[in-house]
């Protein structure tokens, strides 16, 4: 029976083989055509929200006495108020915000750990200005050093960490400038890691807001340190053990109910500076004050700015966007790709509005061609308020799909034919 059946099916098999070849030829032609008209897929990224670095015109001037200032909403990066925000000035110890970013970058990458021990060099111990009086050869953990930098603005701890991570302060400073460029800090040049006055060590209120935003949004654990009011560390040296008291240089931690940080600074050239962060009703603000004539003015100006911002701001968050279905693709080993939203959409408004007036529209690319890499943009969800577009969030592939080769296509045709 088996031999007879096999024999009787020779002609049908021959006809089916010819059919497969014809189908395959048509399919290859179709793939080539689709490739020619396929949409180009963008690389990882895409528009997250609306007007990330734009200023918003406001009707009332808050009355800031300091010569340079800026107020930014952290989640969107939107500027609410600015005054001479692009004027290059000396930043003093606000410099240490970038030092802290690099420290947390090193922790995040696994280069260092919080419990690692840091040995203080002669160069680090020789730092003047604000310090915790580390001695040559003294050993402290990374976590203690972060506390000393964040709370007491310690120059010696800053240099010790710079040397621990990158071998020398000069190399560390080069990395600071690289990171500044990545953040779009176009008017900044660092010469040291602690902010001591030196020619060429300059930045702006806008650039400080950018790096402050980076620190608090990427590494929110910084607030575990920046909100400490008083603490102590233990010096262990050849002379024995001694307690040293840390006192926060940022008086807003006590003076302003919603303060969360971030960094003070003062030198002869910089005068009195402050990058203040606060969180109220899920709205996080960054207020930067530069070149204030005295410490009282920098804190009062910061409070004025923060109150001004909280009096204006409301944030719309789309916590429940439409459920995404798979998106069709051409010429891949799979016919569709799973996707996800790049981020939660947030819209900062400086005037009252009804959240029910916000609508969204799903826009997906057509004729998407394989290969697809995880993170490639495949569309966007566009938001409108009373019919006016206010921003969008990108939709990206959540998996990679390679292009189908000849063998993949052949197997697919065979399977389809057998199933039919």
What features would you describe in this structure?
With 420 residues, this protein is of the alpha+beta class. It folds into two domains: 24-50 and 319-419, D-Ala-D-Ala carboxypeptidase, C-terminal domain (Peptidoglycan synthesis regulatory factor (PBP3), Domain 2, Sandwich), CATH 2.60.410; 68-312, Beta-lactamase, CATH 3.40.710. It is built from twelve helices and 17 strands. The strands form six sheets. Strands 2-1-9-8-7 form a five-stranded antiparallel sheet, with helices on both faces. Strand 5 (230-237) and strand 6 (240-247) form a beta hairpin. The protein is globular and about 85 Å long. Substrate binds at residue 263. GO terms for molecular function: serine-type D-Ala-D-Ala carboxypeptidase activity. Residues 46-58 have a biased composition (Polar residues). Keywords: Carboxypeptidase, Cell shape, Cell wall biogenesis/degradation, Hydrolase, Membrane, Peptidoglycan synthesis, Protease, Signal, Transmembrane, Transmembrane helix. Its EC number is 3.4.16.4.
